[in-house]
């Protein structure tokens, strides 16, 4: 159990276009989903916390109008990178926290490699 | 900002050697997780520790949570090349629910 999928696994787009990344918890309900960005050989940088049915909470320095997050259901959250630029190229990873259970573990998706040309 | 200091940042050892990775903080955590991540993939949960002083074993990996729930360690016995990867600790703050991640330890085990 506790499988999280992410789609697409990689995407290449032109500068100025928008890209949507989906994060799904496949076999559990997630009260909270998180979106991270990761640079090579570095740790995870939290971008925002997404709660089902409410607005996402963004970390300091993350533009909410550029990184649109929608948590439509207990199993799906989406991140849309609007008007993407080359500096947005990165590895984006989502995670989901189970609605039940102890320990507050996060289960991660496989990540999405975004390359903006 | 509540920090979680992880050390060492890089570790390169020979197959068969033992190693320990540390995560330290001045904050108390309600729980702490250890993850392992391979290049191009998402982190995979290895273990969650919740109780102060708790020790958990996963084959050759031993995880310990400090008595005060502010620090944790990961010990690997007889490391193998398959243990190579980025190891991340993540502490969940009491009442906040958000996790703080350490900077990661990149482990390379040479055959």
Low-confidence stretches of chain B: none
| Oligomerization state | heterodimer
Give the radius of gyration of chain B. Answer: 13 Å
The overall strand count of chain A is: 11
Instruction: Write down the Rg of chain A.
Output: 13 Å
Reported for the largest beta sheet of chain A, the result is: 7 strands, mixed
Salient structural properties:
heterodimer, A: 117 residues, mainly beta, seven-stranded mixed sheet, four-stranded antiparallel sheet, 11 strands, 0% helix, globular, B: 111 residues, six-stranded mixed sheet, five-stranded antiparallel sheet
Short description:
The complex is a heterodimer of chains A (117) and B (111). In chain A, the strands form two sheets. In chain A, strands 2, 4, 5, 6, 9, 10 and 11 form a seven-stranded mixed β-sheet that branches. Chain A has a four-stranded antiparallel β-sheet with strand order 1-3-8-7, with no helix packed on it.
How would you portray this structure in words?
Chain A is 0% helix and 55% strand. Chain A is an all-beta fold and 117 residues long. In chain A, strands 2, 4, 5, 6, 9, 10 and 11 form a 7-stranded mixed beta sheet that branches. In chain A, strands 1-3-8-7 form a 4-stranded antiparallel beta sheet, with no helix packed on it. In chain A, a hairpin with a 2-residue loop joins β7 and β8. In chain B, strands 2, 4, 5, 9, 10 and 11 form a 6-stranded mixed beta sheet that branches. Chain B is built from no helices and 11 strands. The mean pLDDT of chain B is 93. In chain B, 0% of the residues lie in helices and 56% in strands. With 111 residues, chain B is an all-beta fold. At the A-B interface, β5, β9 and β10 of A face β4, β5 and β9 of B.
């Amino acid at each position: 159990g506790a499988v999280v999928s992410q789609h697409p696994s990689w995407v290449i787009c032109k500068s100025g276009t928008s890209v949507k990344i989906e994060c799904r918890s496949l076999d559990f309900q997630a009260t909270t989903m998180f979106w991270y960005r990761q640079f090579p050989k570095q740790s995870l940088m939290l971008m925002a916390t997404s709660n089902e049915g409410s607005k996402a909470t963004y970390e300091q320095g993350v533009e909410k109008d550029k990184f649109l997050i929608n948590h439509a259901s207990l199993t799906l959250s989406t991140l849309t990178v609007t008007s993407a630029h080359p500096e947005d190229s990165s590895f984006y990873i989502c995670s989901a926290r189970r609605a039940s259970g102890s320990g507050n573990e996060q289960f991660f998706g496989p990540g999405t490699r975004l390359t903006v040309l | 900002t509540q920090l979680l200091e992880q050390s060492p940042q890089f570790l390169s050892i020979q197959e068969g050697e033992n190693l320990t990775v540390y995560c330290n903080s001045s904050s108390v955590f309600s729980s702490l997780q250890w993850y392992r991540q391979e290049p191009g993939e998402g982190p995979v949960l290895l273990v969650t520790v919740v109780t102060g002083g708790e020790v958990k074993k996963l084959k050759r990996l031993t995880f310990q949570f400090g008595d005060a729930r502010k620090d944790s360690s990961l010990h690997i016995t007889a490391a193998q090349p398959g243990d190579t990867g980025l190891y991340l600790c993540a502490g969940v703050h009491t009442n906040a629910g958000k996790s703080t991640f350490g900077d990661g330890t990149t482990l390379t085990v040479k055959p």
